[in-house]
Amino acid sequence: MQAWRVHENGEPGEVMRLDEVDRPEPGPGRLLLRVRAANINFPDALLCRGQYQIRPPLPFTPGVEICGETEDGRRVIANPALPHGGLAEYVVADEEALLPAPEALDDAEAAALHIGYQTGFFGLHRRAHLQEGETLLVHAAAGGVGSAAVQLGKAAGARVIGVVGGQQKASVARELGCDLVIDRRTDDIVAAVKEATGGRGADVIYDPVGGDAYAKSAKCVAFEGRIVIVGFASGSVPAPALNHALVKNYSIVGLHWGLYAQKDPASIARCHEQLTRLAAEGAIKPLISERVPLKDAAAAVQRVADGTTTGRVVVLPDGAAR
């Protein structure tokens, strides 16, 4: 089979190589899956760079979530077992962790449902306890992680403010349903949020960016607001001023979604049931900006790494527009 492999760490476009390799062997408790679609995540770029918290042995195949097909024909969502990631024609995955792909979504959409939407659901509901009528601020609202949070926020009845970089991404954020879009390149984020909320600020802030985005968040979070730390796509890890959190009565909460697989795996299945229901109702639908064939996967991972994409970029191993 064909699989993209990283033989040395570096930028995805430079270190990923399309190789002919043997199909991975499932082993006990695992199943071989044919990859129908593989969603590209920012962690795939970090894996290539050697900067992710998990560092599989070289050479390895990136790709942390797929829509696949079992040997008996079931369409499933899975997190492939590294080092045999999803940017390949076949993967292996833990049988107990497989989730049914929602019928309301095509293969590319199903591949993009799992990590981003699970992260959004846990972040907004379990960690931040978002309530109907509250104001939710989402950084990088047109990106893969942010777009999921926007849709989930609207589904929860929140007023959603999206922060983006550039007019093209602003248009995408409006189409996603943001009630207000702030362009960080031209607008004053703090002033715009305070004006939109009558000086109160945002009740919940969803931050997958870190760096300056976090600094702005601390200045426009509401009394008893919650800032959810999801990641550091900016490459800068902020150092929160805890005296500021004390004075303003707001919470800083972390979210490492992967821990739930270890600590409370049943919660992931329950969340998937909720996401499947929301998808069937049309309340959520992953925004797929690009569907690319397997031969173009390295360039696609590089675009995600560079932050030039909107929504999700999905690789289709057989090139079909599924």
Strands, count: 15
Average pLDDT across residues? 95
Structural class: alpha/beta
Regions with little confidence, pLDDT below 50 for 5+ residues: none
Give the helices and strands as they follow along the chain. EHEEHEEEEHHEHEHEHEHEHEHHEHE
Helix share, percent = 25-40%
Shape designation? globular
- Supply Rg: 19 Å
Q: How would you sum up the major sheet? A: 7 strands, mixed
Percent of sequence in beta strands: 25-35%
* Continuous helix count: 12
What is the CA-CA span between the terminal residues?
20 Å
Descriptive notes:
By secondary structure, this protein is an alpha/beta fold. It has helices at 12-15, 42-49, 107-111, 114-127, 144-155, 167-176, 189-196, 212-220, 242-248, 259-263, 265-280, 297-306; strands at residues 2-6, 16-20, 30-39, 65-69, 75-78, 90-94, 99-100, 135-139, 159-164, 180-183, 202-207, 221-229, 251-254, 288-293, 312-316. It is 34% helix and 25% strand. Strands 3, 4, 5, 6, 7, 14 and 15 form a seven-stranded mixed sheet that branches. It has a six-stranded parallel sheet with strand order 10-9-8-11-12-13, with helices on both faces. Strand 11 (202-207), helix 8 (212-220) and strand 12 form a beta-alpha-beta unit.
